[in-house]
Design brief:
Blueprint: E1 4-8, H1 14-17, E2 24-28, H2 38-44, E3 50-53, H3 61-67, E4 73-76, H4 86-91, E5 95-97, H5 104-119, H6 122-130, E6 151-155, H7 159-170, E7 174-178, H8 184-190, E8 193-194, H9 197-203, E9 206-209, H10 223-228, E10 234-237, H11 246-254, E11 260-263, E12 283-285, H12 294-312
Parallel strand pairs: 1-2, 1-3, 3-4, 4-5, 6-7, 6-9, 7-8, 9-10, 10-11, 11-12
Pfam families: 2-Hacid_dh, 2-Hacid_dh_C
Family: Belongs to the D-isomer specific 2-hydroxyacid dehydrogenase family.
Protein name: D-glycerate dehydrogenase
Length: about 325
């Protein structure tokens, strides 16, 4: 019996891979710390019935053609799927899957941690301590801003936004949200208030986009949006880098149109060491670690594999896009 080929574009934990059944031939790029080179990707997907991929790989028509007509599923170990050409996949009858639910609470933890770190200047204070700049206690050194009792504005009200709202309630925050559709049940359950975008930007102390990438949200936070924010407000983005116009954000920070920003995602990743945002003292920058816990990343890998295997067997996956 011919074994079905499943190709994985990055090394996954052994215990996750051990769950692959004997009738499936597992091929994998055996590196965890680097993305597969494009030429090797095109060569190694040949004959694959399923592909498990990451945000770092662009799975387009060229890759699908290289795999061949038997390719049935592309499963990404991420919530986002803009790196996959869904139009080309649909034309070929290829199912696209992602892992939206397993990382919700973990990502919400990171969003709130990033908000707190930005508000209280935690990285700046820690750097100063390590560099020997902490002398005597000073009453007005490393002054941040309170989080409790402030207003948080959430752009979007999906699962992660709802999880962030639950955390904000614990800090006694007023919670505004904007989305393309109101969610009355969520408003009642979580005590959040629907707002138009302009009002949210004007009223919020912390503006937090929690939106998917794509043309509909590209540069939603632009110069116009940033000019609507309060001068003492902060932008926290752990959703998609494309949502924020980084040039406009840099200008807003340099002119002190807003007080600060915390970013876990960027327009291009990894962010270049020459990027001017790295020189801004009032910005907290993280290397896209929203879901980076051992438990969650393992669950994501397992779910991505499960989705692919289900489709390869002719069954419905858990998480079809």
């Amino acid at each position: 019996m011919t074994r079905l080929k499943l190709f994985v574009t990055r090394q996954l934990p052994r215990d996750v891979c051990d769950a692959v059944p004997a009738d499936v031939s597992l091929a994998m790029y055996e590196h965890e710390k680097q993305a597969i080179p494009r030429e090797e990707l095109l060569a190694r997907v040949a004959g694959a019935r399923g592909i498990v991929t990451m945000l770092t790989e662009r799975i387009d028509e060229e890759v699908m053609n290289a795999a061949g007509p038997q390719l049935a599923v592309i499963s990404t170990m991420s919530v986002g799927f803009e790196h996959i050409d869904r139009g080309a996949a649909a034309q070929r009858g290829i199912v696209v899957c992602h892992t939206p639910d397993v990382l919700t609470e973990t990502t919400a933890d990171l969003v709130f941690a990033l908000l707190l770190a930005t508000a209280r200047q935690l990285p700046q204070a820690e750097r100063a301590l390590r560099e020997g700049q902490w002398g005597t206690w000073q009453p007005f050194q490393f002054l941040g801003t309170d989080v409790h009792g402030k207003t948080i504005g959430l752009l979007g009200m999906g699962g992660i936004a709802q999880a962030v709202a639950r955390r904000a309630r614990g800090f006694g925050m007023r919670i505004l949200y904007w989305s393309r559709s109101r969610k009355s049940d969520v408003e009642e359950t979580l005590g959040v208030t629907y707002s138009d975008l302009t009002t949210l930007l004007q009223a919020s102390d912390f503006v937090v986009p929690l939106l998917p990438g794509g043309d509909a949200t590209r540069h939603l936070i632009d110069q116009h949006a940033l000019s609507r924010m309060k001068r003492n407000a902060m932008l926290i983005n752990a959703s998609r880098g494309s949502v924020v116009d980084e040039d406009a954000l840099l200008q807003a920070l340099q002119t002190r149109a807003i007080a600060g920003a915390g970013l876990d995602v960027f327009a291009r990743e990894p962010i270049a060491l020459t990027h001017p945002l790295l020189r801004e003292e009032r910005v907290v920058l993280l290397p896209h670690i929203g879901s980076a816990t051992l438990e969650t990343r393992t669950s994501m890998a397992r779910r991505a594999l499960e989705n692919a295997l289900l489709v390869m067997r002719g069954e419905a996956p858990f998480d079809r896009v």
